Amino acid sequence: MPNDFIIVGGGPAGCASALFAAQAKRKVTILHKGMTSLIHSFHWLLPGFPAGVGPAEWLANMRSQIGTVGFEIIEEEVTQAALGASVKQINTTSGKVLEAPVIILATGCYNRHGFIEGESKFVGHGVFYNAYQDGPLCEGETVVVEGKSEPAMREALYLARFAKKIYFVVPALKPEGNDKIVSALSHHPKIEFFTSASIKKINGDNQLESVSVLVAGEEKTIPTRALFLYARTSKPKYDFLKGTIEISEEGAVLVDDQFMTSVPGVFACGDMLAGVPQLQFVSAAQGLVAAMYADRYLANLDL
């Protein structure tokens, strides 16, 4: 039986899309390159898991649910997509060619550049990218934040609710934001600035123990168990689309209020819409809603 949907991406957004498709009795194939190593922890912020749950366990549970309804999951990377026709076509690294009238893009934005030495080792248990998700883990801790943008400063102020001390490492002469927020950080009793600085190395054996910071040509070691990174770039993974859908100036995929891209029948959800990693249950919710509208779109084609 031919596919109704092809879902590209097996993270929270893609899995939630697939689970809705199962409920809607759609035939779906899911393509994903493999479990992403940059998905981080949920803890108390994931609704329904008051004791917390690890990301690998959560995704494994969702994929187990998907497997019970007989969906095909292909662990391959997409190399090319032809999205203009009524029936869309997806090509994979092994030469598979898949077709469906609806595509849901949920590839995330984990194509990271500029990894710090030691970063990947501690992602999710010491190295974080979202204070609103992982800030509560830092109760009473010394925290290091690297960033220069206004969103980074807002997250540092949020972290100050939990941390006992924050070292804010700015890889520029000064942070980039309005005077009000810069002043709030500068006068905050818990926050200390290092300007014209950068993080060179993340240290630790079984857990993060310290970070090496280069400040004015001098290397300092800051003991910490929590590092939040906002200065390193990430971007949505959509190279295979080759300019077929509209992208914002910031690199995020543009969608309408039904999560449809500029190409009819092609939907997108999750981190692709933000251009940066966001809360995983937000991505999952977007995946579910995108699948709902995709189902309606397909139903209209059948009328």
Task: Walk me through what this model shows.
It is a single chain. 41% of the residues are buried. Helix 4 (150-159) packs parallel to helix 5 (179-186). Helices cover 23% and strands 24% of the residues. It has 2 domains: 5-111 and 234-302, FAD/NAD(P)-binding domain (3-Layer(bba) Sandwich), CATH 3.50.50; 120-229, 3-Layer(bba) Sandwich (FAD/NAD(P)-binding domain). The two termini are 19 Å apart. Strands 3-2-1-7-16 form a 5-stranded parallel β-sheet, covered by helices on one side. Strands 8-15-9-10-11 form a 5-stranded parallel β-sheet, covered by helices on one side. It has 303 residues and is α/β, with parallel strands linked by helices.
Cα-atom radius of gyration: 21 Å
Count of individual helical segments: 6
Strand residue content: 15-25%
- Inertia-based shape: elongated
CATH superfamily of the largest domain: FAD/NAD(P)-binding domain
Q: Kindly state the number of beta strands.
A: 16
**SSE string, helices as H and strands as E:** EHEHEEEEEEHEHEHEEEEEEH
CATH T-level topology of the largest domain:
FAD/NAD(P)-binding domain
Poorly predicted residue ranges: 35-40
CATH-scheme architecture of the largest domain = 3-Layer(bba) Sandwich
Mean pLDDT: 86
Strand arrangement within the widest β-sheet reads 3-2-1-7-16
